[in-house]
Design goal:
By secondary structure, this protein is an alpha/beta fold. Among the domains are: about 90 residues, Alpha-Beta Plaits, CATH 3.30.70; about 190 residues, DHBP synthase, CATH 3.90.870.40. About 30% of the residues lie in helices and about 20% in strands. The relative contact order is 0.09.
Length: about 800
Amino acid sequence: MPSLRKPDPETVNPSGEPVRRLHIQVRGIVQGVGFRPFVYKLAKSLDLTGYVFNSSSGVTIEIEGGQSKVDGFLKTLRNDPPQLAEITQITVSEIEAGGGGAPFSILGSREEIGEFALVSPDAGTCDACWRDFGDPSNRRYGYPFTNCTHCGPRYTIIRDIPYDRATTTMSGFTMCSACQAEYEDPEDRRFHAQPNACAVCGPSLALIAAPAASPWIPCSFTDKDSLAIIRQARALLREGKILAVKGLGGFLLACDANNDDAVAELRRRKRRPHKPFALMVRDLAAAKRLCELTAEEQAAMLHPRRPIAVLPRLPGAELSPGIAPGDNTVGVMLPYTPLHYLLFSDSPQMESQFPALVMTSGNLSEEPIVIANHEAILQLGGVADWFLLHNRDIATRVDDSVVRTFEKQERVLRRSRGFVPQTIDLGIELEEVLAFGGELKNTFCLTKGRYAILSQHIGDLENYETMRFFEETLVNLKHVFKVVPRVAAYDLHPGYMSTRMALASGIERTIGVQHHHAHIASCMAENHLRGRVLGVAMDGTGFGTDGRIWGGEFLLADFAGFARRAHLRNVLLPGGDAAVRQPWRMALSYLRDAFGRQLPGDLRCFQGIEERQVALVDTMLSRRIQTVETSSCGRLFDAVAAMLGVASEVTFEGQAAIALEMAAERGIDERYEFEIEEGEPLILDFRPTIAAMVKDISSGRRVGEISACFHNTLSAAIVNVCSRIRASDGVDRVCLSGGTFQNLYLLGRTVVELRRQDFGVFLHAQVPANDGGISLGQAVIANERLRGGE
């Protein structure tokens, strides 16, 4: 430890200023972001002496010099750090001045037992690197692994901390003399850039045709002419071929987004008939030819995270209709590696050869994204025609992130590449907890110190491969952040794989958390709320404390517990998961609930459905065979979508609700009637709504008008119930959570009306409103219960 003391006024420099020496500890995302080079250049520019080094807890600095220059150093350190840095804490101690000494230097990294440093997410290619690999006179022309301290791989190549080349998947590539000179030159932007490389010394590409029987074929990476390989890949894409492209956090499946046959074939091979494909465009100008973009959406796309942004599609945009069937939005991202940029053209000055490319996750349906070359050929051999491979290993698989803007703020729908492993500072000290999350859109959450450490999107825990992905990511994050969980938090649903994993984890203490309580706690945590709130949790499925399936809940909640103040009226869910895949089943259930035995005739929801199937489900409902009661708002959306004929059967989660939102016409304020049954809890009854909708359907009213009226009704009902609960309980802070609130039509009207009624409204931004965020809620609830002595 340095010896601490008061500044000695008798120690002065030649100008007569007091000389100070400071020991500075910086915590946050300060490794792998050019922080040491930044400190080095800043100290040299101010003629300060001392040193800087990486440690397991962050960055340690000692500086010595005149008081004004030391003050200037601290001011710049706090106010103008490197672009990718995120400082969470600066601790400054005064130590005894040594009277100058050797010039300021960067020392070797030091490991500290039990300490952890925040790890930088991967960062999209910066403009300076794009100019380098796009310039024929530059030695990196056409090199697809160009990076610097401002961009490039981080989390996906890190095996351990401190973040040095030896602890990354670049350890097997020895820098050539030119790259080593850049690495050691304080004036070069590649000074201490750990993944620094070029065609002479770095990773290489290989392009191979998909083998007929999908065996593993050893690949040769001896060809250093990457641009020639990429040009061949471009030609294949123009021919309508499907390519599996090894990227940053895994493989992506690519094809020409304007080639109808290629898009249709990709859907057939990937067994993905309807779910929208993500697109990649070369630049913002290309995005603007396809979509409407606000200033906030442009900022989100240009951020180093480079997420997929969900944007309104322009009418007549140059895109295959098979990209997002029935959806008036499309997910678009900018290239985030040089390889992606080069698939469009050789340089920024050349015209892009594609308005857009499909870039969808390289996996089979519901399995994790593929990361290894041999794994890709074995698993994707029946999907891709060609494989564009490289020989830099991916240490951690990470999908692309997905965001959408609402009220001029970026809101995360899928938190993955670019966001993870960035922590969430909760502002309170936490026990070390592992929250296992839910079954769908799974993430897990670790806590340590003041931080919540959310995993990247794991996916639906439906198969062995996804569980392995969960486990390998957990091992990695526990190791990097030095977390030893003393408590496992889990969802109450006994059939969830995440629940079974928690109970079999070997962690001695386990705490079960109700699904919708976790949703609300998640929203509270990221908004730094304490005390009671009124939580409105609307989603598809959550196991209730009464053994029923909840999903339309009004909870008076804090971190310690909750009371169920109101919910949607229960209806029967016929056939479990079959009712989710076939929304017409829920339509029949809601119609029976509203009309009894005398069903209205000529309903669109049963068109194309065999009569015997309808009769079978009707019997299940009347006799309560293979049915459970549910208050799910998601299933209400399914029923209405089926009744309107926009989705009788679905192939991906949320498809019916999305179709219903897309159908809703704007500019309509009319709504239907609903009822609220008094009691404890209140029951929100939409039987009058269903009856009125059936009347409108029979009269031939437009689907878009009926959909808008339904959305308006649900919004008005939410506000009405919130007002009643405020009157009885005096709580005026409302947290909105659950996948239903990803519906911007519903969210927009609800937020406006709640604020008009003088509620404080809190929404998700850093974590998803859907089940991808509940692990955070589980973690903070478990922490609170520990503090309460449970």
